Every structure is written in C-alpha cells, then in structure tokens.
Amino acid sequence: MIGIPVLRTVVLLIFCLGWIPVFVLRSERFSERRAAAGADERRALWNAAAAVTVHVTLAEIALTFPQIEPPAIRLVIGVAIFAVGLAFWMLARHTLVAYGRVLDPTTTPAALVTSGPFTIVRHPLALGMVILALGPAVAAATGVVWASLATVVVALGRRCHQEEAALHAAFGDAYARYAAATPTRLIPFLW
Question: Of all residues in the chain, what percent are helix, strand and coil, respectively (each to 5)?
Fold first, then answer.
C-alpha cells in the first residue's frame, strides 16, 4: 500500500502536469484575444487567468503543508474529479476546434457550435475549468482553497456573460434559440 506522503506527491504531480494540456491546447491565443478585446473584457480575461492561477497555487501549497494530512480517499477523489474535468475540457475543446488549431480571436466564429458538451452547458470549456479546479480543492479541503475556488467560478461566470453578449451579437436569433434549448450557462442545473 502506498503511504500518504508518496500518494500526496503523486497527486501534486498529477495536478501540476494536468494543467499543461489546458494551457498548451487552449482554444484562443491569450495575447491576441486581449489585443482584440475592450477594456472590460481585458480585465475579465486577466481576472479569470489570475483566479485560476492563484487557486491552483494555493491548493498545491496547501497539499505540501505537513500539518494538513488529507485522507487517502480525499486525495483519490480529488484526482478523479480532476481527471473528469480534464477529459470534459478536452472534449469541449475538440468539439469547438480540432486539436492543433487555434481560434482567431480577432474574427467572428464561422459557425455556432451546439453539439457534444455544448448541449449540456453553453460554456463547457469554462465548466471543464471549474471541474479541474474542484479536484485540487477537494484534495486540499482548506477554507482558503474553497474561497479561491469560489473566486474561479465568479471570474469564469463573468467571462461567460461577456462571451454570450459577443455570441448573441454574432449569431442573433440562432444564439437565442440555442440559449433557450440549453438553459444552463456554466453549472448544470444551477446557472
């Protein structure tokens, strides 16, 4: 049986390495997106990136503290949630744009994507990020990590609002019909 210190090290490694595909395969180039965005959207982009970065860092730090001795089951559940989040994010990303390609943030999308994970929520990439962030929060389970997770959800929710305004402007009634058919924006059954 693996001891808690070894399991914790493996979990930390999984969490650290697991974020790499999200940043390597992300659908839009951050600097180009910021350049094409208005001031409010630029702030929201930075806020979302900062919220995720701070959350991940806090969770990783909390898991290294010897005073915090999470039970093995919580570490395993945290990794399982993280894996589900990564798989969901990868599926959403692949549904939006083929691997190896990126979206051009300076142009309007060619088509409104409404299939696959986009039938569950209108922003499955953001939901994938929330699930990814939930994994380390479950593993660490400290107040500050839970608070940082809430910040991630709020920051991503703000981005969802902004993206919806842009998508409605680009696709008009087609987006309104999609929003009516897929009423959940970010968190299934809640919002």
Answer: 70, 0, 25
Q: Round to whole Å and give the CA distance between 114 and 181.
A: 10
When pLDDT is averaged across residues 63-92 and rounded to a whole number, the result is 92
Q: How many domains does the chain fold into?
A: 1
What's 177's domain CATH number? 1.20.120
pTM above 0.85, yes or no: yes
- For residue 139, is it within any domain? yes
Strand partners, 103: 28
HSE (side-chain half, CA atoms, 13 Å) at 111: 6
Residue 31 pLDDT class (50, 70, 90 cuts): low
Residue 128 in domain:
yes
Structural domain boundaries enclosing 104: 4-181
* Whole-number pLDDT of residue 40: 85
The two tokens of residue 155 are 């920051």
Average pLDDT of the residues of the chain: 87
